[in-house]
Amino acid sequence: MATVELTAENFESHVKDDDILLVDFWASWCGPCKQFAPTYEKASEAHADITFGSVNTEEQQQLAGAAGISSIPTLMAFREGILVFAQPGALPPAGLEQVITAVRGLDMDDVRQQIDNQQQEG
């Protein structure tokens, strides 16, 4: 599956509707973004069950701001509508595979319980 261009108009629906959504925040002038792009594209082809989204931070400045992006590239992972991973920097192929494996392996009942506990304490 090719990457999906995410915009302010479709970002929320993808977060809510896709079981696993990876998001690459990038810009055309960013060297590390260009280095990461082939790795991300190759992973999107290898993992058809995951939605791979891409946000052009130049065109989607409000979306990047709302997501708190301060460094690019930044990779985020959402599972069942919950942000479960966010990290700036271009990952090597093995690093991206580790993230995908970890996100797939999450016990989402446990994640939701941890979120509930944090909200009760806060």
UniProtKB/TrEMBL annotation:
Active site (UniProt): 30 (nucleophile), 33 (nucleophile)
Signal peptide: none
UniProt xrefs under InterPro entries: Thioredoxin (IPR005746), Thioredoxin-like_sf (IPR036249), Thioredoxin_CS (IPR017937), Thioredoxin_domain (IPR013766)
Keyword set includes Chaperone: no
Domain of life of the source: Bacteria
GO CC list: cytosol
Intrachain disulfide bonds: 30-33
Marked site positions, Deprotonates C-terminal active site Cys: 24
Species this chain originates from: Nocardioides acrostichi
Record-annotated site: Contributes to redox potential value: 31-32
Protein name: Thioredoxin
Protein family: Belongs to the thioredoxin family.
Domain Thioredoxin: 1-105
UniProt gene name: trxA
Single GO molecular function: protein-disulfide reductase activity
Classification of source organism: Bacteria, Bacillati, Actinomycetota, Actinomycetes, Propionibacteriales
Pfam families the UniProt entry points to: Thioredoxin
Keyword annotations: Disulfide bond, Electron transport, Redox-active center, Transport
